[in-house]
Amino acid sequence: MIVESPAKAKTISQYLGPNYVILASFGHVRDLPERTLGIDIQSTGSSRSTFTPKYSVMKDKAQVIKKLKDASKTAPTIYLATDPDREGEAIAWHIKEALNAPASKIRRVVFNEITKTAVQNAIGNARDINSHLVDAQQARRVVDRLIGYKLSPILSKKIRKGLSAGRVQSVAVKLICERELAIRAFIPQEYWVVSVDLDKQDYRLVAKLVAEGSPDRKCELGTESAASEMVTRLEQSQYHVLSIKKTKQKRNPYPPFITSTLQQDASRKLGWSAKKTMMVAQKLYEGVQIGADTIGLITYMRTDSFRVSEDALQSVRQHINDVYGPNYLPNSPNRYKTKGSAQDAHEAIRPTYLDRSPKALEAALPLDQLKLYRLIWDRFVASQMKPCEIENTAVIIEASLANHPSLYLKLTGHVVLFDGFSAVYMEGKDQDDEEESRRLPPLAEKDPLTLASVNAQQKFTQPPSRYTEATLVKELEESGIGRPSTYAPTLSTIVDRGYVEKEKKSLLPTDLGMITNEKLQEFFSGIIDIHFTAGMETRLDEIMDGKHEWGDVVGDIYHPLSEMLEKAQVGMTKVNTDRPSDEVCPKCGSSMAIKAGRFGDFLACTNYPECKTTRSMAAKLEVPCPSCGSDILERKSKRGKLFYGCSGYPACTFASWDRLISGECASCKNPYLVIKKGKGNDQTICPSCHTPA
Q: Which residues of the chain have pLDDT under 70?
């Protein structure tokens, strides 16, 4: 049996007998070549073409394939147990092609959870590789390669070397840039809020002015003078309760997590990136060590379906009845409708074992895994509980003053009559509520109230909020852009490529992101477009259903793309992204400009090519290079990770992930020390003998 990861292999090996050998492919084993297009495009006339991908075994997978081939020679059956989605189906197909084993020996098995029952059932229901799923993934890969490899060279030539574009990533950048433009164009409008503090026996009530003349005539205050006039009137008024309206409301439980909602709530509640959420979820799915066993604790974490197996429903209902009592259990299981665009290939994200509660696993799980497992557990349990019942109360207070129309104030409160699912779980919010609902004292119509104070507060209308990872994932999902497997890598890519930067939780476009988006919209608006990208996802789903030939779908995109490329080659003007600086070239006296390079910003003489002087802007450490004595500079890797490298590169290749500091090792006399980052406190050690300083 071949799976993707060693962790998954380790977990499954416990469920199958000695007649099975479980091996890992470590993900994809074949792909398109890195440095060439790798697609043979042949015109067939009538604006149609064929697209033949040129796959090859990836360089770092040659030994993996050899090991799989050797093990497969004597095996009567080869089970391909890669992930249960179209990407997993494609990996299985590529493994089959790379092994070149007889088709009669190869069987495809899929399971949504790594449990003994699920794995054994999958083997009992083994099938052939689904060619439609493979075709859908192949279409996506070819389209993304065509867009990326055709657009990226133009961006590199016209804007900045090394830039790239992508079908989904560029739309994500477009959304962030458009939001930023809306924020910049927003003109705040002044308004005033007048509130009154009132006493009712031992209670202090805070009511807001809402109407004048009658309760339904809204009172809007746009200036300080208008607010001051109302304050004066309210200070002289008499107050009584005009009306009390109580309404009962039911709040239904949230459905179990799918990929997008898991990423959103982990962002809101745990402050995690989508990438981190999926990394931790992957470990929970593939299996974690609990005692002597390796156990998969959650179902597959890339899903857009709310479906839950009947066995799991019965287990969670029994858990609710035992722990919370029958009053919290609905008469029948709660069913949630999956969106029409969802693949519905597997279940929602849920715990695999209801007898393994987060509380019981506190000692066994690392903190991050425990946090996410508890989030998934609570959401799933809450999804099968009764609604929360609330009584909302709205009180209208009349302020009377002789010879003036009455003023009307409003205060609200609520009482939880039955907590239902909220006893277990409440979804996080992207923004805090402006005011909290409160419990009100006993009130009756015509009750007099005593004035304590009147307050007026100036406010301004606010622009739309910048996207966070949570709100961007929500926007992408609601717009039908991307699929569960694409959200996390898309967010990582747009930050790593320098199009977007994170400020606390907000996503801000960089100048580079704004310029790139502007040029893409000028010449490629038909491709870098929300509706196009969403429509592409729909067509991929239709390929999965056998409704389209994948080559036809690619062709429908390639031909208009070719026309756009021809226009851009001629019409796109070169953009100067250099920034001025106060520095003067030490060689020729010309001004120096700030340029963006592979390892961060650097200074370069504006008199280039006559003068080729450059200077790094990276921070310099006090410790000289141990190899050549040159300066050690802070640098960033291709993935944005900070490291420390010699300024003499490439002549000197010294580099360290750990920060170098002055000091001599007491044990081996090494002339410098490093700061080793840890989960708790950082530690200063000798890099040579690893002795703590």
A: 45-47, 340-345, 429-438, 597-600, 638-640, 678-680
Per-residue pLDDT tens over the stretch 67-105: 999 999 999 999 999 988 888 999 999 999 999 999 899
Task: Name the phi and psi angles at 453, rounded to 5.
Answer: -165, 160
Active-site option among 239, 300, 499, 672: 300
Q: Which of 460, 487, 505 corresponds to the end of one domain?
A: 460
Note the pTM of the prediction, 2 decimals.
Answer: 0.80
Cβ proximity of 679 and 368 under 8 Å: no
Of 589, 617, 645, which one is at a domain's C-terminal end? 617
Helix H segments across 167-309?
169-185, 224-235, 259-270, 274-286
Identify the pLDDT of residue 435. 47
* Full DSSP string of 5-22: -HHHHHHHHTTS-TT---
Q: Which two three-digit tokens encode residue 564?
A: 């756009």
Residues 407 and 503 in one domain: no
Please report, for the domain that includes residue 232, its CATH number: 2.70.20.10
Q: How far apart are CA 320 and CA 342, in angstroms?
A: 29
Phi/psi of residue 35, nearest 5 degrees: -105, 0
pLDDT in tens, 398-429: 999 999 999 999 999 988 999 999 999 987 76
- Does residue 626 fall inside a structural domain? no
Same domain, residue pair 297 and 151: no
What pLDDT digit, counting tens, does each position of 7-56 carry? 899 899 989 988 999 999 998 999 999 889 999 998 876 667 899 999 99
Yes or no: say if 505 and 469 are a contact pair by the CB < 8 Å rule.
Answer: yes
The kind and range of the H/E element at 393 are: strand 388-400
Range of the domain at 583: 578-617
Query: Residue 340 gets which letter from DSSP?
Result: T
For residue 624, being part of any structural domain is answered with: no
- Identify whether 300 is a catalytic site residue: yes
